[in-house]
Amino acid sequence: MPLCWKKTAPPSGSQYPAERILVLPLDVTQPHQVADAFAKAKERSGRMDIVVNNAGIADIGKLEGMEDSKARGLLETNFWGAVSVTKEALKCFRETNPRGIGGRLLKISSYLGLVGLPALPFYCAAKFALEGATEALAAELDSDWNIKATWSPEHPAYSNPALPASHARKVGWDNVVAWKDMRRSAELFYKIASDPNPPLHFVVGKDAIEATRKKITALAADIDLYEAWSNGLEQ
């Protein structure tokens, strides 16, 4: 049975009947709500095979221009909220599901977790952090568990209209991000969740693939150019 968690209760007359989908209110920044949602889901279904960790928000603003409260709130949702869901998912996969069955944890990151984009420094920070934590987690898991792992005020120093962040502010968030076909994307996520040997990183979308390849190429070039500077550093 699909389980859906959202901050507000579902409207009456939902598209899907209650016996097919369970919708629960949830604020991922509140760990006790995360634990309660998982408990209710397990009570209803008895087990949980796939968890899609997708809670996230984005505020456009420069690192110097965004209020601390918004920046911290973004990290609380996009990173710490994802961590809370991850912990509950792992506990469920390991302790509730039949031994050896495990589960699939799909974390919806972003290529902005690999490539920094102007005007989204804290969103990038959250996604970079999520990437690092997930890579470490993947190495920590016991293989026996079978667990596969709005606008901010303008900062006066950045008034130059030629700057990338100025462009993002002018055209709006919906025009900065190349949104994907949601139905086809969901089909891809379902497919990767069914893969017996899923990759740690699953990059979706030509824009994300192109940006990631550029990042890899630039990083490799920098390493090659300055590799000799490390000669003799080892003792």
Automatic annotation (TrEMBL):
Provide any one GO MF term from the record. Answer: oxidoreductase activity
Q: What Pfam families does the entry give?
A: adh_short
User: Per its record, how is this protein called by name?
Assistant: NAD(P)-binding protein
Cited InterPro entries: NAD(P)-bd_dom_sf (IPR036291), SDR_fam (IPR002347), SDR_oxidoreductase (IPR051911)
Q: Which family does it belong to?
A: Belongs to the short-chain dehydrogenases/reductases (SDR) family.
- SUPFAM superfamilies named among the record's database cross-references: NAD(P)-binding Rossmann-fold domains (SSF51735)
Indicate whether Membrane appears among the record's keywords.
no
Which domain of life, per UniProt? Eukaryota
User: What are the UniProt keywords, alphabetically?
Assistant: Oxidoreductase
Keyword Ubl conjugation listed:
no
